[in-house]
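The pair is quoted verbatim below.
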Amino acid sequence: MPWMLSNEKPIYLQLIDQIKLKILAGSYESGDRFPSVRELATEAAVNPNTMQKALAALEQEGLLVGSRTSGRIVTTDLSLIRTMREELAGQALEHFRRSLSELGFSENEILAYIIKEYQL
């Protein structure tokens, strides 16, 4: 998994966003063992404490489930994953709509553009 980290916002927030996206996209499947803090920290070239902070936040959101004996697993709550995917999709769609509106497209023109570009 390539890690795209910048100085625009705190590293742990970027890690949260990127890991969440991978879980929601199915790169880490529901019920699978999740890599350890050290594995991920090495892969992302970040401090293990920073990665631990990101994973703890994902546990609080319910996407990861921790166990003292077997590490973390990806949640088996498929409704949570579906809900979060829909929320992210809605945010992306709103960003797209707002961007085209700023270019002067009307709501009908935006819809026509989507249909034309994706041949729906």
Summary: The first strand starts at residue 64 and ends at 67. The chain is about 60% helix and 5% strand.
